[in-house]
Every structure is written in structure tokens, then in C-alpha cells.
Amino acid sequence: TIGDELARLHPDNAQFRRNGATTRMQLGDLLRDMKEFEPARAHYIEALARFSALAAADPGNVELRRDIALA
Fold first, then answer.
1. pTM of the model
2. Per-residue pLDDT tens for 2-56?
3. Alpha helical stretches, state H, the chain
4. Among 29, 31, 28, 25, CA closest to 64
5. From 11's CA, which of 18, 19, 20, 27 has a CA 20 to 30 Å away?
6. Is 18 within 8 Å of 4 (Cβ atoms)?
7. Is the separation of the CB atoms in 21 and 7 below 8 Å?
8. Running DSSP on this structure, what letter comes out for residue 58?
């Protein structure tokens, strides 16, 4: 995705990394709605891993903790 590419090109930019994780969540939602549960699950797992890494780097960020709860 574009978000993944921006995160790859700018690994120190947390907002780009968060956008990439959010995109994974949205893809998971879309696939879930299409009853494509295994691919959706893979996107959710990837989103959770990305949100968790971001939260570990910024433990005081409440917005990232919310993202983890939603993933």
C-alpha cells in the first residue's frame, strides 16, 4: 500500500507508520465484510503488530493504546 511504502521510505516518521497500520485495519474490515475471514485476520494481526511497535516506542501515547484496543 502507499502507507507501507511511505513507512518504508521514512521509518522514523511515526505518523506514516501509524497510517500504514490503520490501512491494514481498514483492509481487514473490508475483507471481513466480504466474508474473506482468513485474509482479514492476517491484516488485523499485521495491524496489531504495527500498533504495538509504535506504542512500545511511545508508551504515553493514549491514541496508540486505543488503536491497539481496536485491533
1. 0.87
2. 888 898 899 999 999 999 999 999 999 999 999 999 999 999 999 999 999 999 9
3. 2-9, 14-33, 37-57, 62-70
4. 25
5. 27
6. no
7. no
8. -
